[in-house]
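Course assignment 3, question 2. Fill in each field.
Student: A.L.
Task: Predict the tertiary structure for the chain below.
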Amino acid sequence: MCYNPRPLTADQVDGLFHIRWSEEGSNQKREERTVVAFWRDYLQDVEEEDGSKKLGDILAFATGSDAVPPISFSPQPSLEFLHPSGGAAKFPVANTCISCLRLPIYSTYDCFKTNMDFAIRNTQGFGMP
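Answer field:
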């Protein structure tokens, strides 16, 4: 039996992540909706500009794997949010042991995109040469 992963798409990567929202009606949830819209726009832009290779880099940043395993992920990848009240964060943070991507609250898409690109570009290979 051989498994040959298919090229990733933006919709596929987005669908892998369970979003851990704040309480409905809170100001934090409103901010999170904006960041999720940035996340989805970012995935679409990456797919159009750079293709499935960079989508694999994004997935590797969050999970440690640049492709979806044959039996999917366990635990399921998740998105959480870094709110300013918990200490300001400039860059996204990933915990590959639990496949969790924590996104700071950004007010503009350009800031989101710049900081996502920087984080992904500067963490490839977990410090390996």
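Instructor remarks: The chain is about 45% helix and 10% strand. The radius of gyration is 15 Å.
Grade: pending
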